[in-house]
Amino acid sequence: MRYLVPLLLFLFTGILLINACHSPEEKEVPVKQKPKLPPPGTISALPPEYASPANNPSTPEKIELGRLLFYDPILSGGKDVACASCHHPEFGYAESLELPVGVNGRGLGERRSFNKNNDIPFTKRNAPSLLNVAFNGIDEKGKYTPEDAPMFWDMRAKSLEQQAMMPVSTFEEMRGHGFTENNIKEEVSKRVSNIPLYRKLFKEAFPDNTTITDTLISRALAAFQRSLIANNSRFDRYMRGEKTALSSREINGMNLFIKTGCARCHNGPMLSDYKPHVLGVVDNEKLPFSDSGYHQTYAFRTPTLRNLRFTRPYMHNGKIATLDNVMFFYEDLKGKPLPNPHVHKEQLDSLAVLMTVEFKDLDNIVEFLNTLNDDQYDRKIPAAVPSGLPVGGNIKN
To answer: CB 350: neighbour CB atoms within 10 A?
Structure first.
């Protein structure tokens, strides 16, 4: 007890001195936590059936009328190109060229080229496949609204009905010289109305209407395009319970596809989130300008990964020829300069930055992507079209 009191006084004094030296403004530095990663995304089988808008229910009469219109070059200004010229069943209702040749073109697929003395530019972007376009906008839970489905690489149209006649109005795609955006639809409607067989077919498909309008033409085209379903791939069968539909390497590739972050954008039944993303893909030198995409941000809508075997080349401008090179592109996104000098690293989509694609995983992922192909789709081509013009336009060399 003799030494306890002085010892306690000494300790107390030391504590006071330490506190006196400590600045009252100093605060504890919080432990830096790792940012929370977004969920990896889920993928699933396509539904067995598709939905149609309330104002354009699907009927066999509409589908077959739409098929004829799809292959009939009477819808183009010069009567030389049809929807099928650039969306042909031989190529999965897509196109095998980087940028399609529309007006004043001849041939099909890689054999298609401009006629001599041409002053028509290439179309602006790669022709996307129309297979399963009925499901555009479908989310990870399988929900979608046909009236609100995003269309085109820059999502400038909603619904197949709104999209269907836009190529007809576009100069390099189907309109060409001689007509303006304001009068081409009226001209096409008159042409179709002057053909007795079309008048009969429109009356059967739209019994409540007495006049053929561009709106009805759009609805018939949309009904046909919506019917182009390819929803029974080996992946679909696997996800529905047929566990022998995929090999162990393909299953491993599917797991890697999700693990590496691919499914954050390529998700849901269509393997697309239907949102715009900036990736910095190199410009196509065939265009006289730099394509800045969605709202001039260099973003483009996530494409579906279904039926890639039939729909090469890839990306919005067709600048990547093979699936292997697509995977190399994503592998290089972090470490190398972006291919497009107009896009800076800070503009690169945050989900793309999070991807962890490695060289050793590429083959397995590509094997998985090939399980998304379904070649059992509608390839029926009319023997003739009501206008009497060449079926599909000038697609024969």
So the answer is: 10
How many domains would you assign to the chain?
A: 2
What is the residue whose two structure tokens read 């609100």?
148
Q: How many whole angstroms from its chain centre is CA 10?
A: 77
* Nearest-angstrom CA–CA distance, 314 and 99: 11
Asked if residue 159 belongs to a domain, the reply is yes
Q: Are 123 and 172 in contact (CB under 8 A)?
A: yes
Neighbours of 54 (CB within 10 A): 8
Residue 271: CA atoms inside 13 Å, Cβ hemisphere, count? 21
Query: In this structure, are 222 and 250 located in the same domain?
Result: no
335-372 pLDDT, tens digit per residue, is: 889 999 999 999 999 999 999 999 999 999 999 999 99
Residue 93 φ/ψ region, left for φ over 0, alpha for ψ in the -120 to 50 degree band, beta for the rest = left
Instruction: Give the integer Cα–Cα distance in Å for 69 and 225.
Output: 11
Q: How confident is the model at residue 29 (pLDDT cuts 50, 70, 90)?
A: low
- What's at 305, amino acid-wise? L
Range of the domain at 336: 234-372
Q: The domain that contains 175 carries what CATH number?
A: 1.10.760.10
Element (H, E) at 253: helix 248-259
Q: What is the pLDDT of residues 213-269, one digit of tens each?
A: 999 999 999 999 999 999 999 999 999 999 999 999 999 999 999 999 999 999 999
Six-digit token pair at 326? Answer: 């697509």
pLDDT in tens, 90-140: 999 999 999 999 999 999 999 999 999 999 999 999 999 999 999 999 999
**Residue 200 is encoded by which pair of tokens?**
């009969």
